[in-house]
Amino acid sequence: MDDKTRFFNHLRPRLQAIAYRMLGTVADAEELVQDVWLRWHEADPEELDSAEAWLVTVTTRLAIDRLRAAKVQRTHYTGFWLPEPQLTPEDGPASPEQVLERADDISMAFLALLERLAPEARAAFLLREVFDADYAEVARALGKSEVACRQIVSRAKSQLKEGRLRQAVSPDTHYKLLSGFAEAARRGDFATLQALLAEDAELISDGGGKVPSFGKVLRGAARIAQLYLAVWLRAGKGQLSMHLELVRLNGQWGLLRFVDGQLESAQGFESDGARITRIHTQRNPDKLRRIAEAWTVTTTGGNAS
């Protein structure tokens, strides 16, 4: 491996992290980083003022272009478009990419929230607020002035302010709440399910037009609890088997639900520390494939069914 390749591989986790947060899917992020590698392979590092800045700039600009195209395509998407979740280990990061990640900056809720931003605003916000780039770096990546980038980031923060949690919830508190919810779902305990949900809780589901999902936000503790109860009732009548696993999804505790031995959904949860306020349910089989494959490897010889 030559020095040029080693340098790129050293920065690959950062480039991958930028691309994933911009595009919301692992495959698109990996494809983009591969395109960056091809451009890097043709470049002469000695002609660059900063090789790292060049790589971040190329990654950012390619991601902006691809996100613009993706947003056009997503206008024809069936139902809600939610990001592709990733499994993260319980005992610490398993890859260099995850070393860079803070749970609140990679969560399903945060990635879904980023969909509110236009591509350039999303890039500027991520570089500045998540990757701690200074405004000179942001300006270089976007090809704009520092003053313009400050304005873009400021507007982006205002756009996202309403959707971000007002208070941080500790992982232990989140885990205990979700454990109680999962146990109630396993027992079909409607009263407990409803009690653990905020009265104005929301459930947002992505089926991608390939499996049934709600075309609108499902609101209210009772309605959401009824949905979980319906799955339990079907399992109890032998129409299907249902199995729940607590896992870390995008750095936070979430649930995998298996139906008849197949991964049916990956569910991310937001809470205020006392009750669940929002659930993001990814049901699109294309966006579950990597988790299903990783789970099969992890549980070989185990009981994931």
From TrEMBL:
It comes from the Bacteria. GO terms for molecular function: DNA binding; sigma factor activity. Residues 108-160 form the RNA polymerase sigma factor 70 region 4 type domain. SUPFAM superfamilies: NTF2-like (SSF54427), Sigma2 domain of RNA polymerase sigma factors (SSF88946), Sigma3 and sigma4 domains of RNA polymerase sigma factors (SSF88659). InterPro entries: ECF_Sigma-70_Domain (IPR052704), NTF2-like_dom_sf (IPR032710), RNA_pol_sigma-70_dom (IPR014284), RNA_pol_sigma-70_ECF (IPR014303), RNA_pol_sigma70_r2 (IPR007627), RNA_pol_sigma70_r4_t2 (IPR013249), RNA_pol_sigma_r2 (IPR013325), RNA_pol_sigma_r3/r4-like (IPR013324). It holds the Pfam family Sigma70_r4_2. Residues 8-71 form the RNA polymerase sigma-70 region domain. One of its GO terms (biological process) is DNA-templated transcription initiation. Interacts transiently with the RNA polymerase catalytic core formed by RpoA, RpoB, RpoC and RpoZ (2 alpha, 1 beta, 1 beta' and 1 omega subunit) to form the RNA polymerase holoenzyme that can initiate transcription. This is RNA polymerase subunit sigma-24.
